[in-house]
Queue: 2 jobs
Job 1
Amino acid sequence: MTDTILVASRKGLLTLDAWSGALEDIAFRADPVSAVLDDPRDGCRYAALKLGHFGVKLHRRDPDGAWKEVAVPVLPKGDAEDAPSLEMIWTMETGGADQPGTLWAGTLPAALFRSDDRGESWQIVESLWDLPERPKWFGGGYDHAGIHSLLVDPRDPDRLTIGISCGGIWRSADAGRSWRVAGKGLVADYMPPEQKEDPNIQDPHRLHASAADPDVVWCQHHNGIFRSADGGDSFERLHAPVSSFGFAVVADPNDPGTAWFAPAEKDERRIPVEQRFIVNRARQGGKAWDSFDEGLPQPPAFDLVYRHAMDISHDGSLIAMGSTTGSLWLGEEGGSRWRQLSANLPPIAQVAFGKV
Amino acid sequence: MADIHFTPQLERFLACPPATVEGETVAGVLHRLFDDRPRLKSYILDDQDRLRRHVAVFVNGRPLKDRIRLSDKVGPRDRIDVLQALSGG
């Protein structure tokens, strides 16, 4: 429900009242939570843990309120002594409305997993893991590439679009049986000149499709902001005021021309520009922009919003946003006014409006 | 065969009573134990069946030599301790 905000934090899964910021519940107290997912199809909630000593774990809360540890994705056995092991569940999504119990998980290292039994078992999507292009992917901030964005087309849940840092944008039209690289028009300034437009090494920090038009995909990329009108196949580069660098983006569910961003200075200085924290809003597909600071911290602020730490309510009336320095805000009136709900939370990986 | 004991920190997540288990190597002992306690495996070993990076295993007080294959020999009345490394924040 929109009345609650879930915060996946370094020190547990927090549930807060969206209006007062009152802390209603702490699950997995003091344990790092990397991702949370509510499934409105059956009322279940999922929390992915990244335990410092004991690895990645996944828990499901059934509608009766009890948490239960379920299976966790496992990477295939490799021959090399340094063959990878799962480091993090970075994002989870529900399958289609007509696929109850089907879940997708994007992980670090970059693999896609599917469950058809509410997380009781997971199967790796081998067609993606076996791509000949995969060895060219590389980590952006981590040792390995990772999948952080999963778009399931609400018109046809077999149509998937994934975002990989740094492995570009890949699309499947057959529920993951085959893949093609997308993201034409993305530009990677961190690569040698002849490879800047190689779609296979792009670093899309976050993808978000508009519920108003799922073919409109907004991309906060390592080197700027891009917008696609064809489902992610091709992108147009946009230029935001103050800074086009950042991690998070949310698209307006009512208007495919509108999206919000939380800019930072640049890739090698991941702090607000002049320590003044703002939110940018694109309108008219990025032809017009607004910068908002009402209710947001004034200098000196060092808040950084990670890629999953911004969410918009189903009706588009509210935006929740959390920072790595433990601040949580609620945005109203199109993100033009913000209210601080807390300044004392742990570092925030994800915020999400409750849906169950 | 060896006696195996676990850090109490694991008790936060699942029951870990000490056990006496057949096996000629640490890997043999652990995998036999995991047959009875399947949830425990992912807490101790990674996806490649190596010892997790921040888990420490001692055999009779000596650190495990082979953290990849866990091939260190164990005999009757040997003691295996599964502990957590000091890390985190």
Job 2
Amino acid sequence: MRDVAIVSFAQSTPGLTDVEETETQLLFPVINEALDGIGITRKDIGFTCSASCDYLAGAPFAFVQTLEATGAWPPISESHVEMDGAWALYEAWVRLQHGDVDVALAFSSGICSRADISEVLAIELDPYYLAPLWLDPLSLGRLQAEAVGQEPPTEQPKYTDAAAAVILAAGDRARELVGRPAWISGIDHRTDAHYPGVRDLSKSASARIAGEQAGVDKAPVDVAYVSAQYPHEALILMDALGLKHVFGLATNPLMVSGLIQIGTAADAVIKGDASRSVGHATAGPCLQQNLVAVMES
Amino acid sequence: MATFTLEFPYRRSLGPVVGGFFTGLRDGKVLASRTKDGRVLCPPLEYDPETGESVEPELIEVAAEGVVELATYIDAPMQKHPLPEPFSWALVKLDGADTSLLHAARGRVAKGDRVKIRWREERTGNITDIECFEAV
Amino acid sequence: MSEPVQFVSQKVDLDYKVVTSPVARRFAELMRAGRITGHKCPVCGRVYVPPKGFCPLDAVITDESNEVEVRDAGTLTSFTVITPIQYQGQEEKEEYVLANILLDGASGTVGQQRVEGIPHKDVRMGMRVKAVWGGDADEGSRGWGLTGAIKHWEPSGEPDEPREKYQDHVL
């Protein structure tokens, strides 16, 4: 396996709501900041992967316009995932393993304030058994909190508008770009079955396996950022990952939160505040799908 | 404030497992699928969630009542929820099944309560043919 | 009652707020005043109509200081005669023409522009057209289209533009 590191991370101002600009305009300065931070330009990027969700914008292929923030001329090598940006990062990491490209850009964006997110997420569930019931995130959160014996939450998560970008580099190229690359020593993602009735909601088996495969417990962790939007989710993830303390989300910028948590964990290593950090992303009902990345100096 | 409504009129094909289950609901009975090692899944999934293998081709009938495994009370239902007044989301293991079915239960129910299906009068073959669960 | 259930109908509807970006709002304001504008990139000089607030090729942000006006006339570079399929929600009944138009002063075409005042069989690439204003201008565009301020385009009567002049804008 090639050594791949996160060398730069940038995000829009946390906690934005009701932004008026387009998603592309939101992304532009974020990508600029990620590039400027290590003194490279868009021409230095060998592979680009983006992430978003058309249901947030209310239009098919809405993300295609965000490619305009990448200066895609001459045509670039790029891919897209209809997922949180953490999965765009994962695809970029895989792409760098091929050896022919040394620098990749992964970014994501999401403007939550134009739709009723509780409805958007409800219809993204199993169309036969769950979507007709309009199970919203708060309902699912309350169920899982009951399962783990915690006080059920009383409010929907605070969904916000955001954009974030991460630059990955391999081997010596990473060392050229930044003094302390945040080397990805392990990265893995797993998913539980979709239907809640066949799962043990008090645990997250997929988070546990992803954490084991990423090697979380191979050495002490200085800081961990997980995509928990409620306290009971943080508890379940701490149990799954074997961590005594984690930072969760204050607000939830859908499609970006996982990338932000991994980028923030990487930043701690890059800035010298940590030697070993963990970043986590999630998708699906009740922590169904989980991605864990471990970064080391 | 201008808004627009995105509408998707879907007509979903169901296949033999989900279609069989919905046919059963329309006819007022609950069917389940069986894994190769004999676990009974209700609502029926098409593949064993543990091994990924296809379930047995024949669906079997389970009871229309069972035990609440997990529940949470919703005191302010959303407009699109199954019931207009405060209700509980409940995971119910119907008698004869090894997994739970998630649906609304009238009023407040708790783990261990016995509940039964209240059938919708007009049924078409949909998860909403189950109007809700009610305490026995 | 004994037929197996093979399909289930599900109508999903989601409501979205229409939010107009400041760039699009300014564009719409000028359209209501009868002026078509774009942003000119300070690096490559391309004029984007409607303006995006950036140049996607040079990756530079643009704003009102880069605003330029273009003519409400141009060259039709390609077109389609649409036969409206009567799907749920369709409002069109008769065949109509939609075209890409390269406005004088712009670096790229505006698409989906309605062309009228000429038999459909006579519509042709290279035809010179001018705007017919007086349409229903909405608050702003969603980043594409020219708002509704221009009802449609009609032939201007000028001689056709030779192919070499618009060759790069045929798609």
